[in-house]
């Protein structure tokens, strides 16, 4: 019975796979998988090649750990990255249970209820939750390590991509990417460029639960998934030339952003601000001009002059449009930050940063303490000081 059920499931999967990979979905009329069989010393991309990215993703995770400990940490010390000293809260089972199971930011009514349960004053409960939230926030060193890892990868990926494309005609004439499509042989440089990029974004998905979360966390997940699908799909159906150009455009600005973050965490405000302006300029040129009016034009408009549209054509361009929507979303944030700096000379702060990234400082606590003192009298270690008549001192 079990054997029969397994055979039925395998048969269904096989039928689903055959339907999904049918030639009329992924190729122009008159072409198919047989045209991509290796022959006469010519090698073509194959779907099974993508399995290489899985172990490579694990290798990237290992390299990242080694890099962060042996390179990023000493570099952070050299640049003067200062750790925030966080005060640990006293253990309180009632408050800890509420923090973990209900909310990290209790309302006034919840604070009043917790005061009755714990015997704490409202001020003590609020301070406990503030310090408890700070304990869970990522440290500057953690954020610096992440930024430096991504900076190293994006810079190296851009150099590798540029080196693999510098002598290719489709880098200078985008229409050349379709010459002979889809019967295009794969070059070793293109193979490794693809596998490295795919493995890196795979490693980002694996590590997303441990990395610093920002306001655009969901958009980042969508971006990573769309990128992995785009890379995988373009490989399977031999959109290799378009894929390498897309990856190069994306890598061209990202290392500027990560370096700006590194200087920001190190407290080098001027360096951070000016590098961010350079990043904003490169981002706008590559993501809002070259990508939509150059690459998408040559994948959406030009191909239909060569062959009739097919499902793969719409699928590929649909993924590109998802990326472009994300580009516009991020561009709005970037332009807003850059405008603030250029017009008002304010410091550059990442609008994508979430509250969970930033410590609620002791200065805020001190200011609130002063307000509390004015209303209720002095405090000592979070407790109001009482006189012998059991009334608050003036």
From TrEMBL:
Gene Ontology MF annotations: DNA binding; sphingosine N-acyltransferase activity
UniProt cross-references to SMART domains, sorted A to Z: TLC (SM00724)
InterPro entries recorded: HD, Homeodomain-like_sf, Lag1/Lac1-like, TLC-dom
One GO BP: cellular response to ceramide
DNA-binding region: 97-140
Keyword match Hydrolase: no
Disordered: annotated segments: 347-394
Compositional bias (Acidic residues): 356-369
Membrane-traversing stretches: 50-67, 151-171, 191-210, 271-302, 314-339
Catalysed reactions listed for this entry: sphinganine + octadecanoyl-CoA = N-(octadecanoyl)-sphinganine + CoA + H(+)
CDD domains, alphabetized: homeodomain
Pfam families linked to this entry: Homeodomain, TRAM_LAG1_CLN8
Domain Homeobox: 95-139
Metabolic or biological pathway, per its Swiss-Prot or TrEMBL entry: Sphingolipid metabolism; Lipid metabolism; sphingolipid metabolism
Domain TLC: 142-343
GO CC terms: endoplasmic reticulum membrane; nucleus
Alphabetically ordered keywords of this record: DNA-binding, Endoplasmic reticulum, Homeobox, Lipid biosynthesis, Lipid metabolism, Membrane, Nucleus, Transferase, Transmembrane, Transmembrane helix
Membrane-topology annotation of the record: Multi-pass membrane protein
UniProt main location, coarse: endoplasmic reticulum
Database matches in Gene3D superfamilies: Homeodomain-like
Subcellular location, record wording: Endoplasmic reticulum membrane; Nucleus
PANTHER family: CERAMIDE SYNTHASE 2, LONGEVITY ASSURANCE FACTOR 1 LAG1
Name of the protein this chain belongs to: Ceramide synthase 2
Organism: Nothobranchius furzeri (Turquoise killifish)
